[in-house]
User: What shape does this take?
Amino acid sequence: MVEFKTYYKRHLPHYQPLGYTYFITFRLTGSLPISIIQKLIAERESNLKEIAAIKNLKEKSEKYHAYQTAYFERFDSFLDTYHYGQYWLGQESIATIVKEAFHFYDTKAYDLLCYCIMSNHVHLVITPIVDRISDSILSVGRISDPTKETTLVAESKNSPPVADSTYIVTKILQDLKRYTAGKCNKILNRTGNFWQYESYDHIVRDENDLIRIINYTLNNPVKIGLVTCWKNWKWSYYKYDN
Assistant: This one.
């Protein structure tokens, strides 16, 4: 059984309360040079010290969320424009594995709202399923009873593994990364890390935040000139696009 932790920190802080929608970004291993990562970390530490010194809790919270958004957009901009490392996700066979895994876990581990697969990173918006028995899972907000657990079983020997545990974001990503890395490395005829070990995750605060994040996710290939409309990008998905 995985121990549930609301907050933990590696290089990046991760705040993962149950019952919320999350915006997640993860990237290929070595997709940014160490110098860029060190620069971002130094800037982050400096900004967080300034925010920590703010006495007013409301102001501190607003500053932190504004900083989070700015930090991520800067980080994501480097991924889009800095030509470094591998671009395995630009290969159709590799992107297909990731796409199919995202959909496999939909309704099993999470409610899949949208995603975008780029050549060296992915954006994913999901609501982890805490209680599959309950009908009260919300796209944004709390689940009525976040204390229950459920057992999930993979459908076949060839399907991705679905663990027997509460599906916190970290566990979902571990399963997704482990499965897709193994399949992709086999196609690439390589061994070793496929994904960068740590991901970026952000709680969706409210409906306006959700709209902003979905637009950001879907328009990633538009922003860098790969297509003129997100619907023309083969590797994008939005649940409510009819």
Remarks:
- The CA atoms of residues 131 and 150 lie 6 Å apart.
- The domain at 20-30+92-238 is CATH 3.30.70.1290 (Alpha-Beta Plaits).
- DSSP finds six helices and seven strands in the chain.
